[in-house]
Every structure is written in structure tokens, then in C-alpha cells.
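B., you asked whether I could sanity-check this one before it goes into the benchmark set. Here's the sequence:
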Amino acid sequence: MRALALAAVGPVQWLDRRLLEPRADERLAGFRRFVVEFLYFGIKQARACLFAGLFFLAIFTVPRAGLWGVPRYDVLLIFALAVQAWMVWAKLETWDELKAICLFHAVGFALEAFKTSSGIQSWSYPDFAYSKLFGVPLFSGFMYAAVGSYIIQAWRLFDLRIRHHPPYWMAWLVAVAIYVNFFTHHFIGDYRWHIAACVLGLYGRATVVFRPYDRERSMPLLLAFVLIGFFIWLAENAATFFGIWRYPNQLGAWTLVHVAKWSSWSLLVIMTFTIVANLKHIKRMIHVPE
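And here's what the prediction gave me:
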């Protein structure tokens, strides 16, 4: 049994060690250094997306008819649970991180249940599943949990530090406003751009420091939020193309997800980041000016 465990965990742990402790070469300079750092950056990004990558691979490969008589949505739920359990067992995630990921799942599922309700119908899950609750398959919460898993993994792999993070109570206030607006904009108007203006003022000085190879680099934290939101938007286009869920304008024929969803995902990333930033071992890496 232990041999099987080492065989399953070993390659990922080996890769992590190579990424976290590279054989630095101080002679690297100019274009060669750029290529090496960019390569390491890309590999670390792919590794941080381990859960999301495996999950979306399943989304793209599981037939719409399901497997062995099990509906597709149920297969995806079983797969997501198995991957999540494996990551904790393999010590790729801690129990505290798992608790945070479960919170992302719950928050995401509540939003899904509201958005797909008969009174809203922002999108729908057309296929049958035994694991549907309020018309929403339970696997859907893992799409939000995947964002949290990515941020948690990236924090360790890139040795992230945050400079000039806003006071936590302000960050939480904005995060709650972002989440509430996803619900209330159906009734009292969409205030996302007002909230985005607050985010701009709040995080305008914040900088994320990361280590792609052997030297620290930095970029505006807001830019990181926007870039992550963009790649989630791309993944959403792929998921709707494969019919995992559909927006009303995609029921007849698939069309590109409206670019406005990019802003929604970027705001959701900020909300997710706020939750992750409160984990004890991560909070030590965040500088909040007094």
C-alpha cells in the first residue's frame, strides 16, 4: 500500500522540490534569464492549477451520456471528490486549506442555486443527475473551489508576499459587497463598477512579490486579479462549449461568453483571495501598513 502511495505522490512532490529549490545559475542574464524565468513561471502556474486542470480535463473528456450508466454530472462530482481527497492525503493541501476550499464550494453553490432558480434563470444545467440539489449539480461548487485551490497552491509555489495590503476589515467589506452584488443586481441594479472603483482605491498600492525562479519579481496585485479573471473566463467559454452549462443565448447555438463576465470573475477572484489571505500560514506573508 505504501508503495502505491509513493508512486502516486512521488512525481508531484519531486516536481515541487525542483520548482521550489531550483539550481540557480547567477550567470544567467538577458534573454536567457528571461526564457528560464518564463519557463519556470509557466510550469509553476500549471502546477498551481493541478486541481482545476484535472477537473476541467474530466469536464472535457467525460461523455455527455456519462460513464457506466452514471450520469455525467455525477461522474464529475465523484471525480472532484476523489481528487480533493487525494490532494489532502498526499499533503498537497492542509486540512485548514481544505476548510477554506469547502467554504468556496458552499459560497459557489449558493450562488449557483440562486442564478439557476426559476425566477432568475441566468444559466442552466440541462442534463439529468442524481446529485442535483435545487436544480444544481453538486459538482458545480468545485468550479469555485478550483479558484481557491489555485490561489493556495500558487502562494506556496511562488513564495508569494503581499505589500501594502489594505486593512482586513476593509478587504472583507469589499469582498462581501462583491458577493452580495451578484444577488442584488437582479433587483436593485448592478453596482459592480462602483465596487470596482472601491477596489481600485483599496488595492491601488498593493503589490504581489513572487519568485518564478531564483529572484523575486513583483507586479500590481490588481493586475494579478484581472489576469486570473481572464483565464477563468477562457475556461468558462470552454465549459459552455462542451455543454456543461448554458447561458440563455447559447441554447440554440454556442456563442462566446460575454466579455462582461471577465469583470465578474475578476471580482470573484478578489473575494476568493480575501478568504485565502486569512489562513494563518498565509497571513504571515501579508504586510498591512499601520
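One thing to flag: Residues 1-9 have pLDDT under 50 and may be disordered. Otherwise nothing jumped out at me.
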